[in-house]
């Protein structure tokens, strides 16, 4: 049995479908091209790394605040976890609705924008955040680096 390397008859059949559409020769363009966003620089779709760091910063700050509050109000560990989740959701809704970014996003130089040019606003910030809190929609991405939460709210995360 072959180990995935090229054989005498050509590449293994798994190399075309495991590598995705690009390995089969499809030109999908760059992330954000279909949305009318530039490929690089300001206003380009933010990369995965910056988004992940922003998430960790936001979550870490919420954990820090909930640790202090849990100590002050003598909360149990499950109570502290729910408080962390609630703080994360609250800050995501309020800050995304008002300024388009959380503290973690600001530190990473990214922001959330609606694709129709209007402000994100409280309703779409709430929809987006509720979907993020369920985790799965945030893990399913399209080729423009938009999770299901971004698609539902008609938003994209871009570089500042």
TrEMBL record:
The keyword Manganese does not apply. Pfam families: RDD (PF06271). Residues 45-154 form the RDD domain. It is found in: Cell membrane. The keyword Flavoprotein does not apply. Keywords: Cell membrane, Membrane, Transmembrane, Transmembrane helix. It comes from the Bacteria. Its main location: membrane. It is a multi-pass membrane protein. The chain crosses the membrane at residues 52-70, 82-103, 123-141. GO terms for cellular component: plasma membrane. InterPro entries: Pra-immunoreactive (IPR051791), RDD (IPR010432), UCP021697 (IPR016795). This is Uncharacterized membrane protein YckC, RDD family. It comes from Thermomonospora echinospora.
């Amino acid at each position: 049995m072959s180990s995935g390397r090229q054989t005498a008859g050509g590449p293994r059949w798994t190399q075309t479908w495991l590598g995705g559409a690009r390995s089969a020769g499809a030109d999908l363009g760059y992330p954000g091209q279909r949305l009318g966003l530039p490929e690089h620089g300001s206003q380009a779709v933010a990369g995965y790394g910056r988004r992940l760091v922003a998430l960790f910063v936001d979550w870490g700050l919420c954990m820090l605040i909930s640790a202090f509050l849990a100590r002050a109000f003598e909360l149990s560990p499950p109570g502290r976890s729910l408080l962390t989740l609630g703080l994360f959701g609250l800050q995501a809704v309020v800050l995304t609705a008002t300024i388009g970014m959380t503290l973690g996003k600001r530190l990473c130089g990214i922001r959330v924008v609606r694709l129709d040019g209007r402000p994100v606003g409280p309703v779409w910030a709430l929809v987006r955040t509720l979907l993020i809190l369920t985790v799965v929609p945030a893990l399913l991405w399209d080729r423009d680096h938009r999770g299901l939460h971004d698609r539902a709210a008609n938003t994209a995360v871009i570089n500042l």
